[in-house]
Each structure stands twice: as C-alpha cells, then as structure tokens.
From TrEMBL:
InterPro entries: ADP-ribosylglycohydrolase, Ribosyl_crysJ1, Ribosyl_crysJ1_sf. This is ADP-ribosylglycohydrolase. Gene3D superfamilies: ADP-ribosylation/Crystallin J1. Residues 1-21 form the signal peptide. It comes from Chromera velia CCMP2878. Keywords: Signal.
Length: 402
C-alpha cells in the first residue's frame, strides 16, 4: 500500500512540473480503473464458493419443502373454498403457515412432506454408506416409512383418498402420507424379507410418472456433481421406488441442471436448454420441458396453471413448471431475495407444491449458497440440526466418490 501511494505522488508531482513548464497544458493525472472494472472485481469477491453452493442446495431443498408442508396438495379445482380461504388470509406469504390447510395429512409445523422425508432417508443412507448403496437406502426408507412410524396406516384415520372421485372419510389424517410408490416399495421389500441386502430389482412402482425422483435430487447431486457416475446413480436411486422411464428421465434432467448450478453456471435459458438436451431423454420430453424456455416471458402465475403444464405431481409437467419458475425468479438481484421469490411463486401455485419446492429450493440454494436461505426460515425447519450435520459429512465424501 505504501509503495502504491509513493508511486501515485511521484506521478502527480511529475505532472505538475510538466504543467508549470508548459502553462497551456493541463496536468496529466494517472488513469484509474473504470467503474465497470470495479464492479467486476466486486462480483468476483462476492462469488459463492463451491462448498457454500453444495450446502445451499441441500439446506435450500429441505427448508423449502418444510415451508410448504402446511399448504401441500391444495387444488383449487377440487377444493376451491379452501384455496380461496388460504389466499385471502395469507396472500403471497404462505411459508410455514401456522394453520394447516393441507387437505390430506397434518403434521407439526416445520416437518417435511413425504417428498422431503424420502430425501432425508437418502441423505442418511449416503452418509452412512459413504456414497450410493441401494441396500442401505432401502433400509432407511423402511425406517422412515415402515411399521410403527408416523406414516404407518394403522396409526392413521384413513390411508386412501382420490380427489378425482370419492372423498375418503376422516381427512386430513394426523400423520404422514405414504405415496403410492412408497407403499409399493414397502410391500415388495416385505416379500423379499431382506431390505438390508436390497435384493435385486422390482421394488419400483410401474407406471409412476411422478415428481418423487426429482424432488430427492439435492443430496445425491451435491455428492456426485462432476462425477461421470452421477446419472447412473440417479437412475438407480429413482428405480428403487419408481420403475418408470418418465420419472427416471425427469430426474436425469433435474440432475444435469442442478449439477450445472453447483459448478457455478447461472440459471438462464441456455443452461436449462443444455441440461434438457444433454440428459439423453426422449424428443417428446425435451419438447415438454423446453416449454419453460419458450414461454419465459409469460408470468409464472399464469404459466403454472396452463392445461399443458398444471400443478399436479405428474412429470414432465411438474418439472416444466419448476423450470419456468427458476427462469422467472433467478434474474439478478440479491440471492436471498431470489430464493424467497422462487419459493413463494411455487407456494402460490398450490397443488403439488412440495415436490416442486424440494427442487426449486435446492436449485436456488445452489446458485446463492447457504447464505441465500433466510435464517428465520431455517430455524423453523424441524430437522435442520441433523440436516446441517449430515450435509457437512456428505461434502467430506465428495473426493471419495469421484
């Protein structure tokens, strides 16, 4: 610093001397960096580290899911009065709603949905096994969703419901809601009598073109991003509960996008397009997912409820919805504001918002890092202490699995 100051003074005195010798000439001062150069330097200094992005993806996914659990599966088409009441009372700030509007199940505030709890089981399994291990994952799925848990139907007032036909009695149930693919998995595991060995295949439900595989991506991609094994591991994981090609392909696309974000790429049309086209999916799925890019100028509130997109749990539409939300909410601004904006836009679309929240929260966390997830939201997430501890262990495994 002292040397720089001395150099500046020498240049200044030299310029003054020249001006005195030639009165008509103004002093020639040293050139300073442009404002653009200062901005570029500041941006570099503010760049999010890889470890912060990895933590942000995992933490962001879980926090977003917990924020949406009290308003999960509110479908205006089937429950118009419930949706109207929710919108009137909580407007566009529905996160961690103190009163449950969930028409299917009721859990204490801050807990995960069935999507989030599948991801908890996966995170625990990855850390315990030191990487992907089908048998360990099967074991943790059993522990999370099996007999004697908050998901055990014998503990609930009802275990079946179809919002497209007859309404079951005694809803919402007090406890968690087992997804059909999880029910099928548990039944198949009982038949093998050995979850620990994770026998063969055949535990996945077919067909099951649902968002579960995409929703649980955050810890898996945080561990395997940059590894040539990533897509193989993603497919193996999805097929444990979903023997469905559309579910697998949607997860492949989601994994490619999340990997790009974890490696420092921005959320923009080019990044999304590259993820879709490099995942090795069918032309029809590519076309469905790229509607998000083609319609990027459309407001997300109208795009999300289009007949060719929708707010159900089904893929690829559910993923298309999520991609559009990311493109609309990730443009510039403060990373924390962008994370909140994307999560609230997803919450406000209603329907199967928790599945989208897992993915959107993870992607936005990957861009902004763990600091982009609001501290007060983190504090309201019931399992955050365990999630943080496991996330640190997960990051420590990255060199091992490459």
């Amino acid at each position: 610093m002292r040397t720089s100051c001395l150099l500046f003074l020498c240049l200044l005195f030299s310029a003054v001397e020249r001006s005195l010798a030639s009165p008509s000439r103004l002093p020639s001062l040293p050139q300073f960096p442009s404002l653009a150069a200062f901005q570029q330097t500041r941006d570099v200094m503010k760049a999010v580290s890889e470890s912060a992005r990895l933590r942000g993806a995992v933490i962001g996914s879980f926090v977003a899911d917990a924020a949406g659990m009290p308003v999960h599966w509110v479908y205006p088409k089937f429950k118009p009065e419930l949706a109207e009441q929710l919108n009137e009372r909580f407007k566009d700030k529905k996160e961690f709603c103190p009163e449950s509007f969930n028409p299917f199940y009721k859990l204490p505030l801050g807990q995960q949905s069935g999507y989030g709890d599948q991801t908890v089981a996966l995170l625990r399994a990855l850390v315990e096994a030191g990487g992907w291990d089908r048998g360990v994952y099967c074991s943790h799925l059993q522990k999370m969703f099996g007999d004697g848990t908050k998901y055990d139907p014998s503990q609930l007032s009802s275990s079946t419901y179809s919002h497209e036909s007859k309404t079951a009695q005694n809803l919402p149930v007090t406890g968690g809601w087992r997804h059909q693919s999880v029910k099928h998995f548990l039944q198949k595991i009982k038949e093998t009598e050995s979850a620990e060995e994770g026998k063969g295949t055949g535990t996945g439900l077919s067909p099951d073109a649902q968002m579960d595989g995409v929703a649980k991506l955050a810890p898996l991609v945080a561990l395997y991003a940059g590894s040539p094994r990533m897509l193989q591991v993603v497919e193996e994981c999805v097929r444990v509960t979903q023997e469905d090609q559309e579910a697998v392909d949607s997860a492949r696309v989601g994994a490619k996008l999340l990997e790009s974000l974890l490696m420092g790429e921005p959320i923009e049309a080019e990044t999304v397009t590259k993820a879709v086209k490099s995942a090795g999916v069918s032309a029809s799925m590519e076309a469905a997912l790229l509607k998000s890019v083609d319609s990027v100028e459309e407001d997300h509130s109208s795009f999300a409820v289009r007949e060719d997109v929708g707010i159900s749990c089904k893929v690829p539409n559910n993923l298309t919805n999520s991609l559009h939300c990311l493109l609309k909410c990730a443009k510039g601004g403060d990373p924390s504001e962008a994370w909140v904006s994307a999560v609230r836009a997803t919450l406000n679309s209603l329907g199967c918002n928790c599945s989208r929240l897992c993915f959107v929260g993870g992607c936005m966390g990957a861009v902004g890092g763990e600091e982009s997830v609001p501290a007060d939201w983190i504090e309201k997430t019931a399992s955050i202490t365990e999630i943080r501890a496991l996330s640190e262990e997960l990051l420590g495994l990255r060199d091992k699995v490459k």
